[in-house]
Specification:
Layout (H helix, E strand, L loop, with lengths): L1 E2 L6 E2 L13 H4 L1 H11 L3 E7 L6 H6 L1 E4 L20 E6 L5
Antiparallel strand pairs: 1-2, 3-4, 3-5
């Protein structure tokens, strides 16, 4: 399941438009907004994709560290978990404190 960042409606991973507020989920899902914030943050040098302990094979294949220009979008295409993709982004910071 993915979540619309505009109205917080949870929708199936395959949808690209929120059925509640019509937001474009390719840009306005919680994951898409999070991804863009990581890319825009000058302290982030790379991003890790985290998977759950019972991740499907498609999500397991996505686990790892990515350069900012190579970050895959979430949810993972082809995720077969019954509850939908549960992968998350984590920043790898250049410096922790200013």
């Amino acid at each position: 399941m993915q979540t619309c960042s505009q109205c917080l409606t949870q929708v199936h991973d395959s949808l690209t438009t929120c059925p509640n507020c019509q937001a474009d989920l390719t840009k306005l899902s919680v994951n898409a907004v999070s991804r863009q914030r990581l890319v825009d943050n000058p302290r982030v040098q790379a991003v890790r994709i985290n998977i759950s302990h019972d991740a499907c094979p498609a999500c397991q294949a996505m686990e790892g560290v990515y350069n900012l220009d190579e970050i895959p979008t979430l949810p993972v295409a082809g995720c077969s978990h019954p509850g939908g993709c549960r992968c998350t982004y984590s920043p790898i910071l250049e410096e922790i404190f200013p």
